[in-house]
Write a structure and sequence with these properties.
By secondary structure, the chain is an all-alpha fold. The protein has one domain. Helices cover about 75% and strands about 0% of the residues. α1 runs antiparallel to α2.
Amino acid sequence: MPRFRTRPTEFFDAWKYAAADAALALDAWRSADRAEKRIAHAAYIAALDREAHAAAVLQHRLRPAG
């Protein structure tokens, strides 16, 4: 079975999209009606978690071997 290797640019793209998603979630939280603030905040925190994870994976992937 062939092994596929993920290119570093794919990890960068994943982080970039996660960061953009977090920015959109922040805007949604800021502009949410009072009744929607709690759920919008939870969505923003989840987006930040995804961005942090993508950043950690990217950092690990780009770390020099050895």
